[in-house]
Amino acid sequence: MQRAGQEPQPAHPVARVTKKGFTMARRRLVPLLGGPQRTRVVVVLACVLALSSADTATVGAAAIQLRRALDIGNTDIGLLVGVTAVVAAVFSLPFGALADRVRRTYLLGLTVLAWTVAMVWSATASSFGELLYARLALGAVSAAAGPVTASLIGDWFLASERGQIYSFVLTGELLGAGVGFAITGDIAALSWRVAFVVLALPAFPLAWAVFHLPEPRRGGAGVLAPERNGAPREARGANAFADGVTAPGRRPSPPRGAERASQLTDAQQLVFEQGTRPDAALAARARPGMGFFETVRYVLSVRTNVALIVSGALGYYFLAGVETFGVEFVTRQYHVTQVVANLLLLVVGAGAVAGVAVAGPLGDRLLQRGRASGRVIVAAVSASAAVVLLVPAFLTRDALGALPYIALGAGCLMAQNPPIDAARLDIVPSWLWGRAEGVRTFVRTGAQALAPVVFGAVSEYVFGGGHTGLFWTFLLMLAPLSASAVYLFFAAHRYPRDVATAVAATQAAERRQ
Questions:
Q1: Residue 225, number of CB atoms within 10 A of its CB
Q2: Half-sphere exposure of 439 (CA within 13 A, CB side)
Q3: What is the C-alpha to C-alpha distance for residues 486 and 384, in angstroms, rounded to an integer?
């Protein structure tokens, strides 16, 4: 304790550096994100996804220790990750329905608290079977993150900036995976039980932060406007045509009334200016009071949405396999220790973060310049580049030689997600955002569940196991990654019509009211 009259002791160097870094990050982020309230929302949502991805990555990073402690093989490791995703896939559908009906911040906060219990249970498991049950529980409660986050972003932020917002939020998912690989992965080298406990600790303050987020009004009526010098600035995109004035070089849109026109997003306004015709039959089927199965049928009737779902599922399928077996593959392929492998994966993660940071704003910018499918085109090109870059990365045995290819490939692989996530909100009416994301999460997490099991089984039973089995499995799994690029180019072609259909469906619902 400091005595009276005594000069204050200097803070610990680590504390000073941490405080200074936090202050600098806050000074940069708050103006960039448009004010403290918007920054708080983005950071909290990013942390929610970070917690989920950190847990998944930790299982892969601790694969060697889990095999030794529980006497299991690659297939069992894949099963631990797979069952979490299977249960998450099943529960994503009811959570999607809840996201369209209940207070979303409370729903998300409660599930974060439940994650804590499931992660502590994982740490205390004494057998493979008990750990498997704990993973089942974790999968059930983690299913809320995708549908609730998508619905909140749609109502909190302007359509013209959703790509950029998704870039920030999905960066949290990548940073969480990095924590799982590098930090808790290194802890797992000493004790895999402690690694799970370390992940459980931040869930309590995160749940508190989620509970204290404001609940936005639905349908984009409660958008958090960006601020400039402490005051909200005029929003671009959604209200750009509210006064009937068209942008230079653009044709006036068909008259729909000032209020209705002001609710159109950039993409929706653009497709009407370009004369894109909606699918009238599909638009007539959409209504706010749709039942669950009717909603699923409608969402799967939007052809662009199906292409985006399938493409995203194939990309996450590949990523889930890499997250599960990546550390083991790197250590043996490039002859490095697990600690060095985790550090290399941090560099790869930096490339992935760069890809996510660039792709979202780039898709927004193409859209603002008159390319209705700009966001989807960015994703399609990124998916194609990822395949091209990962082939030489897998073939070489030199860690330094492979690192640039892997880092760039990871950047292109993850660059698909922000523009796709933003694009999906424009092809589905706002009252279906939660359920539509639930359907997508169901397919995506199903693919994630399948990937570790398939990667493990193929490497073990088809290619003979060990490093050779993983090597050929990684090369083989580039095939579904290539297919994801094909689906994205198809989606880019179809996207404008489905955007117009979503507008027609919304306007039809307004006329019925």
A1: 17
A2: 24
A3: 8
At position 306, the amino acid (one-letter code) is V
CA distance 509 to 283: 9
As averages over each run of 10 residues, the pLDDT of the chain (513 residues) reads: 50 52 62 80 87 73 72 72 77 87 90 86 81 83 86 86 87 74 65 79 88 83 68 42 32 38 69 84 84 87 91 86 76 73 72 88 89 91 92 84 86 89 88 87 81 84 81 88 90 91 82 67
97-120 pLDDT tens trace:
888 888 999 999 999 888 888 888
Q: Helix 303-333 to helix 63-70 angle, to the nearest 10 degrees? A: 70
298-353 pLDDT, tens digit per residue, is 999 999 999 999 998 888 888 878 777 777 787 777 777 766 766 676 777 788 88
Which domains are seen in the chain, by residue range?
33-223+295-512 (1.20.1250.20)
pTM of the model: 0.74
Six-digit token pair at 223?
Answer: 């958008």
Map residue 260 onto helix, strand or coil. Answer: helix
Rg (CA), the chain: 23
Q: How far apart are CA 327 and CA 194, in angstroms?
A: 19
Contact 378, 357 (CB under 8 A): no
Q: Is 274 helix (H, G, I), strand (E, B) or coil?
A: coil
Q: What is the C-alpha separation between 413 and 406, in angstroms, rounded? A: 10
Q: Which residue in 276, 279, 269, 277 sits closest to 370, CA to CA? A: 269
Return the exposure string of 25-59: e unless at least 16 CB atoms fall within 10 Å of the residue's CB, then b.
eeeeebeebbbebbbbbbbbbbbbbbbbbbbbbbb
- Residue 44 near residue 419 (C-beta atoms within 8 A): no
Q: Beta-carbon neighbour count of residue 273 at 10 Å?
A: 18
Amino acid at 341: A
